Amino acid sequence: MRGKRIERILLLLVLFMLGSTTAFSIDYRKVFGSDWTEAERFASAHHDEWKQEFDLFNVDARLAEAIVFPELIRYSMWQDEIERTAVNGLYVSKGREGADFSIGRFQMKPSFAEEVEKAWNASSLSKEYGFSFNLADNNEARRSRVRRLSTMQGQCRYLALFIRLQQQRHPPILQLSLQEQVRLLATAYNRSFTASWNSLQKMQYERHFHTDVIKTRSTRFYSYADISVAFLCKK
What we know:
- By secondary structure, the chain is an all-alpha fold.
- The protein contains eleven helices and no strands.
- It has helices at 2-19, 28-56, 61-74, 77-94, 110-122, 125-129, 139-149, 152-169, 178-190, 197-203, 224-234.
- α3 crosses α11 (224-234).
- The N and C termini lie far apart (52 Å).
- Helix content is 67%, strand content 0%.
């Protein structure tokens, strides 16, 4: 009986150790190698340019860059060109049912931009900043959306609006440390724009992020939020 109790305790200890993996127990710089280095170099080279856009909306550039850093790692130029072409054609003519691919360095989908625009128009922020979006379901509105998504300035502004809207949607987030804010906002960015506070808390450690062009049995999955925090803490 005593032997079984000891075995049970040992098993619980093993499970605890396996479940305690954090962003700091994995060296993501080593895991992603040259892709991490290139993403870090790109973010550093464009920091001043991006910061100007984030400052317009009172968003901390460190927070914003950390949220999208995993996308900079995953970015593939040739794949982006293919998806951008599909979005320019099928999305503009048919909407998200026609094509809803992620485009640009921050890998934003037209459907994500639609959600941000709709939430922005309905928020007090649109009145505070004095602009709103054309939400009409037609080619002109969709073409303008794709045009914004196709520029670095446009993606920075969508990211800034996303952050401000999430802060307004979840006021407690402003009381957290920068690292904790990154965890939850990165989770919302990667998983769900409309996720509840409890859902974000639960999803932040889940492993769904990968960098393979096509998912296979050997694909390795990571926590998106862990990578964002790892980048923040190494800056």
